[in-house]
Amino acid sequence: MKRVALFLVGIVAFALPALAADDTKMDKYVELLRSDVRTARTQIVTEALDLKDQQSSAFWPVYRDYEKDLAALADKRVALIKDYAASYDTMTDKIAKDLVNRAFKINQDRTALLKKYYAKVEKVLQPKLAARWVQVENAMNSIMDIQVIANLPLIP
Questions:
Q1: Are 51 and 59 in contact (CB under 8 A)?
Q2: Residue 109 burial by CB count (10 A; 0-12/13-18/19+): exposed, middle or buried?
């Protein structure tokens, strides 16, 4: 089950660069796969944390809020990839610098988001279990990062 879920997360990341040039297809595809990715992420987190009923009822509302905030960051990343694809053939130093700075900001924001929600998760679970959740989130985010990076062409 974990491999299937990780595969789904990777597929979304893989598909983004290929569809970045076609906004209509991209938007439809992203929306279609987002529900699959959320399901996959939820399955992975469920298996990794193995929460008891009381823990589960305290954790999942916090996690749903985290997912909403993470989705907003994913929107920024999709916009960045679209902009990269749109400017690929006309890349200038100025555009490259802007893209890199936006990518740095998205990465900073994702780390800050995880840190913020670690504090919230730690309040409803033990610190050790909250740390495990951070490990799982970092692993899933890293898989997506690698998939995107591996499929984006280098700046010309």
A1: yes
A2: middle
Structure-token pair, residue 107: 């990465």
**Gap between the Cα atoms of 21 and 83, Å rounded:** 9
CA distance readout (Å), 98 to 103, 108, 148:
9, 15, 18
What are the CA-CA distances from residue 18 to residues 12, 40, 64, 92, 136 (Å)?
A: 10, 22, 29, 22, 27
pLDDT digits (tens, 9 = 90+) for 69-100: 999 999 999 899 889 989 999 999 999 999 99
Domain ranges of the chain: 2-151
Residues making up the chain, counted from first to last: 156
| Structure-block tokens of residue 86 | 């749109």
| Calpha distance 50→149 (Å, rounded) | 32
Whose structure tokens read 């400017």? 87
Instruction: Report the greatest alpha carbon distance in the chain.
Output: 55
First CA to last CA distance, the chain: 39
Supply the pTM of this predicted model: 0.80
- Answer whether 69's CB lies under 8 Å from 4's CB: no
